[in-house]
UniProtKB/TrEMBL annotation:
It is a multi-pass membrane protein. SUPFAM superfamilies: Tetraspanin (SSF48652). PANTHER family: CD81 ANTIGEN (PTHR19282:SF214), TETRASPANIN (PTHR19282). It is found in: Basolateral cell membrane. Keywords: Adaptive immunity, Cell membrane, Disulfide bond, Immunity, Lipid-binding, Membrane, Transmembrane, Transmembrane helix. It comes from Nyctiprogne leucopyga. This is CD81 protein. GO terms for molecular function: lipid binding. The chain crosses the membrane at residues 110-134. The gene is Cd81. Belongs to the tetraspanin (TM4SF) family. One of its GO terms (biological process) is regulation of cell population proliferation.
Length: 144
């Protein structure tokens, strides 16, 4: 069990370093994923569409509406089901495009992602310590 935790910890550290080095590429990929989901949501008519659910999650989480193009700019006026908010005018005036919000997330909020990674790393170190203590306790025990 300890060995599995060490391997998992090493993979998480490697993924964290890779993510920090390639944060611009990751932000670009997230924007591309959002654009694909947005196009799928615009073309779909049913409420059970996965693209619509993904787009609504982006809009609610980032408080934005639409991509960084003309269709995204006028979407709040004709697709209220994709954008959250009380009124159409409020959506159009206050909500910014999601590409800008994604860039802000990866540049301005990077410290929050780092803090979360450090917390997970500390928890995993405690897990490794406790699993080794348990292993040594079982090994030294005379009764199985």
């Amino acid at each position: 069990f300890f060995t599995c935790l060490v391997i998992l910890f090493a993979c998480e550290v490697a993924a964290g370093i890779w993510g920090f080095v390639n944060k611009d590429q990751i932000a670009k990929d997230v924007k591309q994923f959002y654009d694909q989901a947005f196009q799928q949501a615009l073309m779909a008519e049913s409420e059970t569409n996965n693209g619509k659910a993904v787009v609504k999650t982006f809009h609610e989480t980032l408080n934005c509406c639409g991509p960084d193009n003309v269709i995204g700019a006028i979407t709040p006026l004709w697709r209220k089901d994709l954008c959250s908010g009380d009124s159409l005018v409020e959506n159009f005036i206050e909500a910014s495009n999601c590409h800008k919000k994604i860039d802000e997330l990866f540049s301005g909020k990077l410290y929050l992602i780092g803090i979360a990674a450090i917390v997970v790393a500390v928890i995993m170190i405690f897990e490794m310590i406790l699993s080794m203590v348990l292993c040594c306790g079982i090994r030294n025990s005379s009764v199985y």
